[in-house]
Amino acid sequence: MASPWVEDEEPTDWEGPAAADDDGQTGTPLPYVDPEVAAELAGEGPPVWMGTRWREIEAEHQWEAWNTLRRWVDWFVAEYRLVTSVVPPCWYKHSDLTAELYAAMCMEYKVWEEQAPGLGPMMMWHPHVEMLTARLRRMVDEAGCAKIGRHKEPEAYGDRPAFTLDYDEDDFTAWAGTTREQDTLERPTTGVQYVRARVVDGDGGQVAVSNPVGLAASRQPEDVAVVLEMSSSTPSAPRLAVSVADSRDDLSVEWESSPDGHIWGTLGDEQQPEDSSEEERR
């Protein structure tokens, strides 16, 4: 479409195909933003590290991150009148408390980021504050710092440092290196069919074989059972449900009627249920 602000039909620079950039890539150019405006907008946003996993914050930003988080924690404790059994002075020495508080700081920033009335603070932030303080209280209680009034290092388990797992390395390696696949096979029509899995290498050579598993032919019920029930006894067009206990796919239902329950005849087309009732396979 030609620009309404020019008289000729020649495409303008912004209507024509985008030229390739320094890397040879083409595409629609982004709207122009003055460098000074872009710098100002960037300065108004959160720190570059905020929103990054705490353990992945670059070393050059860690000092700023720790100080920013401390200022936020000080505000959080004062704002919500939290006691040391919820946030102890040594919170920064506990990785679980630090993770919770950092996530809370990011969330609190996010709900107020738009600076406009909304439901985020009431529906997202404040309900989570209550759940957060409950989790913090449990963590602090398990750490034991608040009970003795000072930081308490976690206790080691024998020769292992605290909060480390004593793996059976051979068992883990065998388990992690085990691949699992599933497939669906058809049962034989008669008798029993034995199947097994064979593992081959890249050259087609056999490496291992599995245990055999026997698949028996699908068994059909000797007798077909059918039960008719009244599922809805409405005054107009009552609904019936018929259940046929058989897995054969060549069966169908025909409706019959009787004036006395002894002599039966096929219902006429005008008397057949509108949807042939509800048929249920079991």
Give a description of the structure.
The protein is of the alpha+beta class. The protein has a domain of 91 residues. The chain is 30% helix and 13% strand. The chain has a three-stranded mixed sheet with strand order 5-6-9, with no helix packed on it. A two-stranded antiparallel ribbon has the order 1-4. The protein has a two-stranded antiparallel sheet with strand order 2-3. A hairpin with a 5-residue loop joins β2 and β3. α3 runs antiparallel to α4. The radius of gyration is 36 Å and the shape is extended. 6% of the residues are buried. The N terminus is likely disordered. This is DUF4913 domain-containing protein.
Distance between the termini: 62 Å
**What are the secondary-structure elements, in order, as H or E?**
HHHHHHEEEEEEEEE
Strand content: 5-15%
What is the gyration radius calculated from CA atoms? 36 Å
For the secondary structure, the number of strands is: 9
Average pLDDT reading:
83
Give me the secondary-structure topology.
Layout: H1 35-44, H2 59-79, H3 95-112, H4 120-143, H5 145-148, H6 169-176, E1 192-195, E2 198-200, E3 206-209, E4 213-216, E5 225-232, E6 239-245, E7 256-257, E8 265-266, E9 278-281
Parallel strand pairs: 6-9
Antiparallel strand pairs: 1-4, 2-3, 5-6, 7-8
Helix pairs in contact: 3-4
Short description:
The chain has 282 residues and is α+β, with helices and mostly antiparallel strands. It has 6 helices and 9 strands, in the order H-H-H-H-H-H-E-E-E-E-E-E-E-E-E.
